[in-house]
Design brief:
- Helices cover about 10% and strands about 70% of the residues.
- By secondary structure, the chain is mainly beta.
- The longest helix has 17 residues, at about 5-20.
- Strands 1-2-3-4-5-6-8-9 form an eight-stranded antiparallel beta barrel.
Length: about 200
Amino acid sequence: MSPGSIRRAVLGAALSALLAPALAAQEVQGRDALWYGAGLGPGVARVQCSICRANRGTAATGVLRLGGRLKRGLLVGAEATLWAGGVQSGVHESMWGLDAVAYYYPRARGTLYWKLGAGMLSWRSVDGRDVLSAGAPGLVLGTGWEFRIARQLTLAPYASLFMAPVGGDIKFNGAGIQQNASLLLGQLGVSITKH
């Protein structure tokens, strides 16, 4: 992802966030028992341990979501997130997470939500011959603001942070070589959800 496209994505998310207060009176009606959605945007990944540099990279991220309504103003579900770091100097990096999440809407029929979840975050770096990998349990925090675009369809700029600060084991070609790696995946994006 080029610096120009990252700037455009961040500018779009920021513009959406600035327009949100003007549209705050809008309410999302009719959240069904089942909901599903997807989101895209730039993301940053970080892997840190005592034998590796703090890997930071900005690349495209995507998320798939599926869940149900527990009660008015509270949705629960599962998410799968992917950060595709691409290839740099012959090394392909990727990070992905699987987590259980809850979306809390402070106003039961409102458009602002807070997200909290827990799951597993994994990282992999491949140079064509050797593989470095890590995985650790972590927490997910996020927020977003939904805008109705159709009867049961919403568009939402969102920010999400998946943190696995301890417990990750670095493996080299499947063999453990280092303990206590920390993993981090941050996202800014826009999602579309069918309620």
